[in-house]
Structures are given as C-alpha cells and as structure tokens.
Amino acid sequence: MSVRITDAAFEPWSQLAKYQREQAGQAAKTGATAVFVGSMRDFNEGDEVSGMFLEHYPGMTEKYLEKISATARTRWELEDSLIVHRVGELSPGDPIVLVAVWSAHRKAAFEACRWLMEELKAKAPFWKKEQLAKGSRWVEHNTPG
Amino acid sequence: MRVQVRFFAALRERAGTPALEVEVPAGATVARVWSAAVPEESFTDNVLAAKNMQYAGFDSLVEEGDEIAFFPPVTGGAG
Lengths: 145, 79
Prior knowledge:
heterodimer, A: alpha+beta, Aldehyde Oxidoreductase, domain 3, 4-stranded mixed beta sheet, B: alpha+beta, Ubiquitin-like (UB roll), 2 helices
C-alpha cells in the first residue's frame, strides 16, 4: 500500500511497472489489477485552459490518502494499492493522478479503484487553479464521476 | 491559549497569508478560531476546516497548540 505526492511530472505506466516489479512474490496472488489514470484537460466550463497550479496540504493530504487506502482494504479483499498524485505547475495532457488496485479477482479491484478515486476527488485536500487566456481562477467544484 | 491557523487555495489568497497564530479563550471552538483569524469574513458552507490535519466541524473544541486549517471545497484528481 503506497501513497505518493510528486511535484515533478510523472509517467504513470513506468511508475506502475516499477511498483509491480517491487511487489516481488505478489504477482501469483493478484489475478486482477485495476488502474485509473486522470490527466489534465485543456478545457473546462467552456474555456480553454493553458496551465494549472495544483495545491495540497502537506501532511494532511498524505494522511487522508493513506486513510482511504486502509479503509479500502477493510471493505474489499485487496492485495495492494498505489496512489500517485501530482502537485505544482502542470500543462495540458500531464498525468495528474494514478490509482491502481491489486486483488485476487476483478470485482474487488474494479470497485475499490473506483471508490478510491471518488473518495480522493470528494475529500482529499487538493485545489486546482486554472490559467485561462483572461487570467486565472480557482476551480470551485469537481465534475461528477 | 494560542493556536496555529493555516489557509489554503482561495482562502489563503483572501487572507493574504498562508499561516498565522491567534489567541482564543479556553474552550474555544473552530468557529471561534475562524472569527479570531478573519474577523471581517463570516463562515459559509464553502469553508471546510481541519484540526491537526483531520476534518473537523465548526463546533469542534480546540486546544492549546492545535493546528486549525481552513480551505475551500477540494478539487483534486482528474477524469
């Protein structure tokens, strides 16, 4: 179970491959791996977005993501989970979030991955500020899942 | 007693500072800390609070040295 916040651009697929390699001996137990990757769009609420600043609450953000990762393991039979979230200055197309869940069977993996993503969006302390042609604005609400 | 106050995102910009220290009476609530920190602004539904890095209600009691954070609704993730 791992939670990472990074202020540098990250490549989700190589992070995933690296994490899987580090789970030595686990592969035989995990019949199912569910992965979600969310990236930055170049449009929002009808406006073109040229850049983004992502703020977080160092300490609380990690604690919250660790808490939901632990809760997921009590609700589903999971072997492991990984959450990576970007902060700082982003450009359109940049990966923002990676959520991966490993379990014996697909139902738990799909459900826990979706649940972790929705919990993250609803309550993890992150805030987005968008750069538009006419200035910048804080995003006030997330799009429904 | 003294408590540490932190602001994030739009509230940090409105407050003009990321952090400050305020003096509140013993038995004060999170709401009392808010009025000590930003007396010119009333609480709205768009303000969330955390005490020592865990979500807390406005009526939650604070203690000496607590870190109380105020921030707008969160907008992390993507997709």
